[in-house]
Write a structure and sequence with these properties.
Organism: Corynebacterium heidelbergense
Protein name: Patatin family protein
Low-confidence stretches: none
Shape: globular
Strand content: 5-15%
Distance between the termini: 33 Å
GO biological process, one term: lipid metabolic process
Structural class: alpha/beta
Order of helices and strands: HEHHHHHEEHEEHEHHEH
Radius of gyration: 18 Å
Helix content: 40-55%
Number of helices: 11
InterPro entries: Acyl_Trfase/lysoPLipase, DUF6363, PNPLA_dom, YjjU-like
Number of strands: 7
Keywords: Lipid metabolism
């Protein structure tokens, strides 16, 4: 889980009582969003470190049982209950009036959807949307909201970087947390035919997977343009050692510590940017 690295950023922002005028999240970043807005520094770490290694959160056995490599129903819709393994403070989240956007991809039409505070009425409503945004197609069961199937919002128009939504909402300066290094660009998939066959019931998902590199790379270029203009401060991990499927506790702990050290080193730069 590469977000074990950026979880340290969220922890520090909450611990230092930093607030923003707008927050956006897509895929695993949607979990960062809700942890940030619930002002829970410890949960921001636990969600991607200790909890990420919990046997009930997934693995090959979970996938064989039909729950997905990551057991999304448990992770997003069970574990956050007050008497479960990773309690979520919905009251604090609801009391924070910061505008936000969570992005997901409609599997039936190929449309990109952004949900905001106006679309959330309860903790189950919120967590279902976080789950939808985070659903890796092929690795996690597809959730339905109002009879509509959704998958990972990173397949949508944003490419997985939601500055487009912030700009659409009128914002002009951005702190962006990335889980890939500065020079990373996605390559086209090797087997488009196999992807189309795998997702033959959802052709819009297949085409989005096949072409995602185009939107992602364009979004990265746009970020760099914003950075050159002085309108974006971008956190690029400099020592990322894990991939998205990593569930080994020691490796996740090390990833978090690497992220914590980099956040500490770059903190003065963050404060200078945010203070301007």
């Amino acid at each position: 889980m590469r977000n074990s690295y950026t979880a340290a950023c969220i922890h520090e922002l909450v611990a230092k009582n930093i607030h923003f005028g707008w927050v956006g999240g897509v895929s695993a970043g949607a979990s960062h969003l809700v942890n940030f807005l619930s002002r829970d520094a410890d949960r921001s770490r636990e969600a991607f470190v200790e909890f990420g290694a919990h046997p009930d959160t997934g693995g090959l056995r979970s996938m064989v049982r039909g729950n997905g490599f990551f057991n999304a129903e448990y992770i997003y819709e069970v574990a956050g209950n007050h008497d479960s393994d990773l309690p979520f403070d919905y009251q604090t989240f609801a009391a924070d009036r910061t505008p936000f956007r969570i992005s997901a991809f409609r599997a039936d039409t190929g449309d990109t959807v952004y949900w905001g505070r106006e679309d959330v009425s309860s903790m189950p409503s919120l967590m279902r949307k976080v789950r939808a945004s985070s659903t890796l197609p092929g690795l996690m069961p597809m959730p339905f909201i109002d009879d509509v199937p959704y998958v990972d919002g990173a397949l949508g128009t944003s490419g997985g970087i939601v500055t487009e939504a912030a700009e659409s909402d009128g914002f002009t300066r951005f702190l962006v947390l990335c889980t890939r290094g500065r020079d990373f660009y996605r390559k086209p998939p090797r087997s488009p035919r196999l992807i189309r066959r795998w997702f033959r019931g959802y052709p819009h998902v297949a085409e989005a997977v096949i072409t995602r590199h185009e939107r992602y790379n364009a979004a990265r270029d746009h970020l760099k343009a914003l950075e050159r203009e002085g309108r974006a401060l971008i956190f690029y991990p400099t020592n990322m050692r894990v991939e998205n499927r990593e569930r080994n506790l020691k490796k996740l702990q090390q990833s978090y510590e690497d992220g914590r050290k980099q956040t500490h080193d770059e903190w003065p730069q963050w404060m200078e940017f945010l203070g301007n």
